[in-house]
Structures are given as C-alpha cells and as structure tokens.
C-alpha cells in the first residue's frame, strides 16, 4: 500500500495551521528608496504649495459650483477623509525614511569610530617610533663629538710621538757616548731629600 506523498493528507500527523501571508515588497531596498523619495518630497515647499492649491480648488469647487456638480458639500467630509488617508500613509513613510537615515548615520559613525581608532593607533605608533629615534640619537655620535674625539686622539698621538722622539734621542746619545760604567744614581729617600754623605 502506497503512502500518500502530501503530509496534509495523513491522519496520524497534525495539520499545519493556515497562516495569512501578507505580500512583501519585491525589493526592500527599492521600496525604501521610493519611500524616502516621497518623504523628501513631502518635506518641500513645492508639496505644501501643491497641497494648498488642491485644497483651495476643492473647497472653491464645492462651495461655488452649481449644486448638481458639487461632489463634497459644505462640511467637506470627503476632503477630511482624503487628508486623513494622506496623513496615515505619510507618517509611516516618513518614519521609514528616518529609520533608513538613522541606519546610514549609525554606519557612518561606526566607520568614523573605526578610522579614529586606526588614526589613534597610527599616532601612538609614530610617537613610540619618534621616542625610540630620540633615544637612539642620544647614543649616536654627533659631528662635534667626533671632531673633539679626533682632536683628542691627535693630541695623544702627538704626545706619544714626542715621547718616542725623546726616547730615540736618548738612545742615540747613549750609543754615541763611549761606554763607561754605569752612571751613579742619586739616592733619594721617600721624602725626596738626598741623604748627607
């Protein structure tokens, strides 16, 4: 025996409740743009002028036209109904436009926050690098320091050359002298005074 394919025909399973499905706009983004366009138009002076002209013509027609051509007598009930209908659609469209603008503002603020955080991180990195460069520059020899060190070394080399020259001169003098015994050494005590003979 073949089982029915459709689930709704089985008696051992409950039926799915019938749901009323409302039609959705085909594209939410295009509907949002359309609603923003209407909301922007309703916030202009042109809309107020058009609305005023329509209301003045409506009232003038229904007040001044012959009785058989009037479609909304003196209390203008149909005009009130039309204005209420226009207001009932205008409010949600304006709210939708405001919500979309708030979403855009929120995204822009998040982007600004992200960029500010990146700039702060870059600034902190650069300040650390500058501090490191300053510390490194404190350890680097400057031109004046190198000149002074080279001058000091040149003086030391000159002094060493003079000492060597003196030592060489003394060696030359010793070689030229006839060999005699060792020269007597003057004895000096710890106070630097020669003892008496």
Question: Top keywords for this entry?
Answer:
197 residues; mainly alpha
Gist?
By secondary structure, the protein is mainly alpha-helical. It has 4 helices and no strands. The chain has helices spanning 28-42, 45-64, 77-139, 143-176.
Structural class computed from helices and strand pairing:
mainly alpha
Low-confidence stretches: none
How would you describe the shape? Answer: elongated
Hey, roughly how much beta strand do the residues contain?
under 5%
Radius of gyration, in Å, reads 54 Å
Question: What portion of residues is helical?
Answer: 55-70%
Number of strands: 0
Distance between the termini: 151 Å
Main pleated sheet: none
How do the SSEs run, as a string of H and E? Answer: HHHH
Mean pLDDT: 84
Q: In DSSP terms, counting alpha (H) and pi (I) runs of 4 or more, how many helices? A: 4
